[in-house]
């Protein structure tokens, strides 16, 4: 087992960087170009708030799909588990994140889980607030508290691009309206979903979200409990089974860490009782996961003994 130090993290970054060559940068995101391909950064924050960073950890990318876990937390807070999972399932699936086929071919009453786009749109529709603006304000304020980063902001450019490229998400949403899954205003649910995707974060912000999940839902400095631990258990379970799109099984086996990735190359990892991890590596594979970031997550798990299924790590320590 290796010791967590910044020196170790720098070596881990160097070992994982070559995996970027097998991925591609998502050019739908504004201000993105091939030069981002080789970026790789990581921040780890432990339970006692020790912060370790290496590589391009200062980079900022849009949250994209990592926003799905924040939306899920708010919906659970607003309606509780039973109501939320009436609107969306909790089963993993093997299709792509923007799959439309599952909506029609399996259970038409709800999307498979909250980590695919259809599921996240259905969850966004549940988040309470009098208008889209108010609902997004709640989302952003919640994120600011979790990350203790008052300056968090939404990129208008990314938001506009999400809207402009949103045909597939619109199709998912209107299909769900046709089956009665989505009963609130479809355009409002989509608009909130697009805004949620466009919030800009760096590795520390992502790591703080992971830490929040790992340490029972308390705000970093005030220790205020923002969400009950039983909701966080639900979110981490869904991350483990569905957070890495249709590679979630692979990551459960190879890393054993509840993770959520986004097509900007971001990954949030939450190791209960131990640490939060934030990774940015913009080159992604065909499933939407950062290639170098994914390699790094697997390496960290192995070297630092983070696999949640790894009882042998505890036995070694005895
Ligand atoms: N903005 C992307 C979409 O809605 C997010 C997908 C992702 O990060 O998985 O399709």
UniProtKB/TrEMBL annotation:
Pfam families reported for this sequence: Glutaminase
Binding residues annotated for substrate, in chain numbering: 65, 117, 162, 169, 193, 245, 263
A single GO BP: L-glutamine catabolic process
Catalyzed reaction equations: L-glutamine + H2O = L-glutamate + NH4(+)
Keywords in alphabetical order: Acetylation, Hydrolase
Annotated signal sequence range: none
InterPro entries with a match to the protein in the record: Beta-lactam/transpept-like, Glutaminase
Subunit and interaction comment: Homotetramer.
HAMAP family found in the cross-reference section: Glutaminase
Family designation: Belongs to the glutaminase family.
Name of the protein: Glutaminase
Gene: glsA
């Amino acid at each position: 087992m290796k010791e967590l130090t910044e020196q170790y993290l720098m070596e881990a970054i160097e070992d994982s960087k070559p995996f970027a060559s097998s991925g591609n940068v998502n050019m739908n995101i504004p201000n993105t170009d091939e030069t981002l391909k080789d970026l790789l950064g990581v921040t780890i924050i432990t339970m006692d708030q020790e912060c370790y960073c290496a590589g391009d950890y200062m980079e900022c990318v849009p949250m994209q799909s990592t926003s799905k876990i924040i939306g899920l937390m708010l919906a659970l807070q607003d309606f509780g588990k039973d109501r939320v999972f009436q609107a969306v399932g909790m089963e993993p699936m093997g299709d792509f994140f923007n799959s439309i086929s599952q909506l029609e071919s399996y259970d038409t009453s709800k999307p498979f889980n909250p980590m695919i786009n259809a599921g996240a749109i259905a969850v966004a529709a549940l988040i309470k607030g009098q208008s889209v603006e108010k609902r997004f304000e709640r989302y952003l304020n919640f994120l600011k508290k979790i990350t203790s980063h008052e300056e968090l902001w939404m990129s208008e450019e990314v938001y506009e691009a999400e809207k402009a490229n949103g045909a597939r998400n619109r199709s998912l949403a209107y299909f769900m309206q046709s089956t009665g899954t989505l009963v609130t205003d479809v355009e409002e649910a989509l608009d909130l979903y697009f805004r949620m995707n466009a919030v800009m974060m760096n590795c520390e912000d992502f790591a703080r979200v992971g830490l929040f999940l790992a340490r029972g839902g308390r705000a970093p400095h005030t220790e205020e409990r923002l969400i009950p631990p039983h909701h966080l258990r639900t979110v981490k379970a869904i991350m483990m089974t569905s957070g890495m799109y249709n590679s979630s099984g692979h990551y459960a086996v190879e890393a054993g860490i509840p993770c959520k990735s986004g097509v900007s190359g971001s990954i949030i990892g939450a190791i209960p009782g131990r640490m939060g991890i934030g990774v940015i590596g913009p080159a992604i594979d065909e499933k939407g996961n950062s290639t170098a970031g994914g390699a790094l997550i697997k390496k960290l798990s192995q070297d630092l003994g983070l696999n949640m299924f790894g009882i042998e790590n505890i036995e070694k320590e005895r």
